[in-house]
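S.,

Sequence below, as promised.
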Amino acid sequence: MPGYYRRDLEQQSSYPPGSEIDIAAVDSEGKNLILGECKFRREPVGAGVLWDLEKKSACVSWNKQERRLWYILFSANGFTEELKQLARMRDDLILCDELS
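The prediction came back faster than expected:
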């Protein structure tokens, strides 16, 4: 399978210009789509970042009927307890805040 890149995903999406998804990756079989956000803020990242990403992901039409969708969030200063709780309850959400 040829490489599938962010520009390909952008061409197959309908999210508004000016809104972006920081990370977009597809596995070689085309069954898993990983979408993510990277935040470098003074405060922990909250659930609102996940909710915004979920809204944006609804606009990505790539392989929508057959894909498994994963979310990954990176934060320089951790995550709120609310978001950590959501991550414990979901198998499609990965939180990364280890920078070293």
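The CA atoms of residues 88 and 94 lie 9 Å apart.

Coffee later?
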